[in-house]
Amino acid sequence: MRLYFKYLLILLKSQMQYRTSFFLLSFGQFFIPFAVFAGLYFMFERFGQIKGWEFFEVALCFAVIHIAFSVSECFARGFDAFSSLVVNGEFDRLLVRPRSTVIQVLGSKFEFTRIGRFLQSFSVLVWALFNLSIDWDAMKAITLCFMIISGVLIFVGIYILAATMCFWTVQGLEVANIFTDGGREMAQYPLNIYQKWVTKFFTYVIPFGTVNYLPLKYILGKIDGNEFLYMLTPVMGCLFILPCLFVWQIGVRHYRSTGS
Predict the structure, then answer these.
(1) How far apart are CA 155 and CA 17, in angstroms?
(2) Which of 20, 63, 148, 200 is most enclosed, with most CB atoms within 10 A?
(3) Using alpha carbons only, what angle is made at residue 204 by residues 198 and 206, rounded to the nearest 5 degrees?
(4) Contacts of 176 (CB under 8 A, 6+ apart)
(5) What is the pLDDT tens value at each position of the chain, 260 positions in all?
């Protein structure tokens, strides 16, 4: 991990060489989710609630998934832009270095301007928590933290799967955006507002339901069953990254060098 943090420091210094550009991009990133959240706010102003979910409950759901997405975009951007390493033959150099390819790809690119998106989402999180009557205890606070961590790992896992496909397709596939951008837009609402097959897919295949819907019900006191099971769902979501890393290793073994 020392190597990873060195990558991070070097790229942060390089991006801060153009500070005006950095702050303008960060400012723009602040308003991208702000516009989406404004749409959510006006929708609730018009309809009041959606399938029993109030505005601030959905705002909490929105904040968690957007915080997770912004963190994953910042620190896992190397996998999102991985196709360029394959096209240019740069991945050959990573293979001959005595370090994990995962760490090297992670450290190849950071998007620190995503701090703007993070700050906007964090502001919504604080606003929602102040307006919700939640009977807080240590386990609920830990569950909320794990919701964000689980969301980050799920998004990173999707980036890794999309990058792995480049070993066979060379160019990145836009279909991956269905599960990153599309998954973010879908998971910013509680999953039970969708049809059952959608809810099941995004719970058991791409486990966004373990990030927001199931643990959110536990935090808000909307469950009648086993609270311990609902509390553990974010931990289960964290495990999603393990098969993604396994698939990555399969892709690395099937990589055909450019010979450069």
Answers:
(1) 29
(2) 63
(3) 75
(4) 158, 159, 161, 162, 165
(5) 677 777 667 777 777 777 777 777 777 777 777 778 888 888 888 888 888 889 999 999 999 999 999 899 888 888 888 888 888 878 888 888 878 888 888 877 777 778 888 888 899 999 999 999 888 888 999 999 999 999 999 999 999 998 888 888 776 666 777 788 888 888 888 888 888 888 888 888 889 988 888 899 899 888 877 778 888 889 888 999 999 999 999 988 888 776 55
The two tokens of residue 44 are 């609730």
Q: How far, in Å, CA of 113 to CA of 26, rounded?
A: 4
Helix %, strand %, coil % for the chain, to 5?
Answer: 75, 0, 25
For CA atoms 116, 121, 122, 128, the dihedral sign is positive
Give bridge partners of residue 50 from the DSSP assignment.
53
Q: How far apart are CA 4 and CA 255, in angstroms?
A: 23
d(CA 227, CA 231): 6
**162 touches 79 (CB < 8 A):** yes
* CA 76 vs CA 8, 12, 152, 225: distances in Å: 11, 14, 9, 36
Query: Cα–Cα distance between 110 and 11 in angstroms, integer?
Result: 7
From the list 133, 136, 135, the residue with the least C-alpha distance to 145 is 136
